Amino acid sequence: MNAFYFVQDRQLARAAGALIALLFIGGCSDPPKNRFQGYVEGEFVYVASPLAGTLETLQVRRGEQVKAGDPLFVLDETAEKAARDQNQAALVLSEAEYARQDKLFRTGVAASQDLDRARSTRDQDQQRLTQAEWNFSQKQQAAPQAGLVYDTLYRQGEWVAAGKPVVALLPPQNIKVRAFVPETRVGSIHYGESVWVAVDGVREPFIGKVSYISPHAEYTPPVIYSKESRDKLVFMVEAVFDPTASANLHPGQPVDVQFESKS
């Protein structure tokens, strides 16, 4: 009975020793030197009107997809419509007066100064009408490009100051991945090279290309002469993707980034 337990204890000891050896080997092996942590970043397109006004109509909701040219919002345009109509009426009168002065000038009744004055008045009214029509058109804003309505920044009925964004769009081509690479590895990464991005919960990686390598370190220690200090330097590297793929990425999402290795 004692011999049985002795043999069993020796077998358990051997198994435990083998497990410890495997863990030690695994702990001593280097992690993948070509994989780095990163995150998804989005460059938003903020749509605003150059004129102030009350938000009359918000025609999109957060989370919707829009196409280029789709209407986004309308600000109160009462004042701009009145100015446009007033300038249209003024132009009708000044054009009629110019036509009358031109006819009189051709018959020798009117002086050239009268004709020039009528022409100047007509041209000024035309410029005022052009400006009024532009102001009126700016109270309605459409999507400059296709993308996701990432956020709406005002509610219907609120006052919107001139130039303040009402809708934030995220076009898929504006979605990118940023990773921070140590100084010892950034030299082996080149513009245009392939990038593999792994996302939690997604089986297949996203494949993109390096689009930007920062020329400056993101962190510089007080002394950078030693190798230990240089190891603290990291450089930002950005990668872009085909819009059909990047549409499935979300800003702020953590990712694992692996670069194509030339070494």
Summarize the structure.
With 263 residues, this protein is of the alpha+beta class. 36% of the residues lie in helices and 30% in strands.
Name some characteristics of this structure.
6 helices, Elongation Factor Tu (Ef-tu), domain 3, 30% strand, alpha+beta, Helix Hairpins, 263 residues, elongated
3D architecture notes:
With 263 residues, the protein is an alpha+beta fold. The chain folds into two domains: 32-74 and 142-263, Beta Barrel (Elongation Factor Tu (Ef-tu), domain 3); 77-138, Helix Hairpins (Orthogonal Bundle), CATH 1.10.287. It is built from six helices and 14 strands. The protein has helices at 2-28, 78-107, 112-137, 183-186, 227-230, 243-246, and strands spanning 35-42, 45-48, 53-58, 65-66, 71-75, 140-142, 147-152, 159-160, 165-170, 175-182, 194-198, 206-217, 234-240, 254-259. Strands 1-10-13-12-11-14 form a six-stranded antiparallel barrel. Strand 11 (194-198) and strand 12 form a beta hairpin. Helix 2 (78-107) packs antiparallel against helix 3. The radius of gyration is 34 Å and the shape is elongated.
Topology:
Elements: H1 2-28, E1 35-42, E2 45-48, E3 53-58, E4 65-66, E5 71-75, H2 78-107, H3 112-137, E6 140-142, E7 147-152, E8 159-160, E9 165-170, E10 175-182, H4 183-186, E11 194-198, E12 206-217, H5 227-230, E13 234-240, H6 243-246, E14 254-259
Antiparallel strand pairs: 1-10, 1-14, 2-9, 3-5, 3-8, 4-7, 5-6, 7-9, 10-13, 11-12, 11-14, 12-13
